[in-house]
UniProtKB/TrEMBL annotation:
This is Uncharacterized protein. The keyword Transmembrane applies. The chain crosses the membrane at residues 39-61, 99-117, 123-147. Keywords: Membrane, Transmembrane, Transmembrane helix.
Length: 160
């Protein structure tokens, strides 16, 4: 999981690098950010963070009950433990819970930064706000990938 977080940070830095590279005039960029982007990022990130926060417990508990407590998953885990005895029964749920927490926190922090740091008409403030928003977006994609993986496992277990 730490590798995924590190990859998310690098992806956010790459997005930030693209913003720096493709912005020829910092004054116009600051004005464009202030007029067009800041309010959209604030409302979008606040919505995503709040939505994930309200669903976090539901998602984790339902996956635990429907996937990881099923007999088919337990039997497949027993087979996999013959190869790797360090596999955790609820490891994927723990990872999803941790990544959801980081995604929620990063979304809410990025949203708050839009109406605090984002009000400062400086180039560095724009980079901080866009960087935080990029990290929150990458974390959201990571959550979606983890949920997709767990759903795929669940559907595979349902067919058995």
């Amino acid at each position: 999981m730490n590798k995924m977080i590190l990859a998310s940070i690098f992806a956010a830095l790459a997005i930030l690098g693209a913003v720096i590279f493709f912005t020829p005039d910092s004054v116009k960029a600051i004005h464009f950010y202030d007029e067009k982007i800041r309010s959209i990022l604030f409302s979008g990130l606040l919505t995503v963070g709040s939505f994930l926060l309200s669903l976090k417990v539901f998602i984790v508990v339902k996956f635990k009950e429907n996937v990881f407590d099923s007999e088919s998953y337990k039997s497949k885990l027993a087979e996999r433990r013959k190869i790797n005895p360090n596999l955790s029964h609820y490891g994927p749920v723990r990872n999803l819970s941790k990544v959801l927490f980081i995604a929620i926190t990063s979304s809410l922090c990025a949203s708050a930064s839009q109406v605090t740091i984002g009000l400062i008409p400086e180039w560095w403030a724009l980079l901080i706000c866009v960087g935080l928003a990029a990290f929150a977006g990458v974390m959201l994609l990571l959550v979606l990938l983890l949920i997709r993986t767990i759903l795929k496992d669940w559907l595979d277990h349902m067919e058995v």
